[in-house]
Request: fold
Amino acid sequence: MKTITLTLIFLLANLSYITGYQGESPMGKTWVVFVENTNYHYYVDLHETERDINLMKNALSDYKIDSIIHKRNLTKNKMEEFFYTELKESVIDKRVNSLMVWYAGHGKHEDNTGYWMPVDVIVDDNSSFYNINYLREALTTYSDHLKHTLVVTDACEAGPTFYQAMRSIPQSRNCDEITVTKYSSSQTIISSGYEFLPEPSVFTRTFAALLNHNINPCLPIENVVNQLIISAARNNKPLPRFGKITGMPDEGGTFFFIKKE
Reply:
């Protein structure tokens, strides 16, 4: 009888791993923000970006995401207002625990600095670019309210002032390590292209495919990064970069995508 009881306890304890995490996600309340800049005033338009973002949104529908915010065609002023004020107020008011910010649009790398291009960007006028260090500064003002932050840039290199790159391929994780979610993380992935080209994004489509084909109850971001690197190498694309966001809380935790039951 004692053996049967112990076996039952063991099975119950591991049920969440076998069938998915029951109840609240170990990542807590999780939001995803997509910034999609497609229709430029003075730059070439991007015709595949909307389709790529929709691929990601559809792939995330099988995961525990509490809210998806999709911002389209932001000017520089709107980008600054959104990250410094609108998103900050929402994160604090709704008590968001985990946040992924995804940018798709034109980008530029200049003087060791990465830029996102607002739709009203003026060619060769740096003052009209959105310096992604501004994004880091904005996120820092409410980072104490977040446990996990992940910034994904499918546009350009970020520059050394934004993040500290990993010096080697990150070690793969598995769902047994879900307890690391209790430690904070501030991570970024950059596709490492110097300009966003008007063609389907191998980076985004690989990311979406990994989410779609994942059969485990979770998908750690390190595993995504490793496959993105393999895919980029096969397609002769720049290798993605992965690292910690400079100046933001990071206790060695990591970002997990948690499947719905």
Remarks:
- The radius of gyration is 19 Å.
- DSSP finds seven helices and twelve strands in the chain.
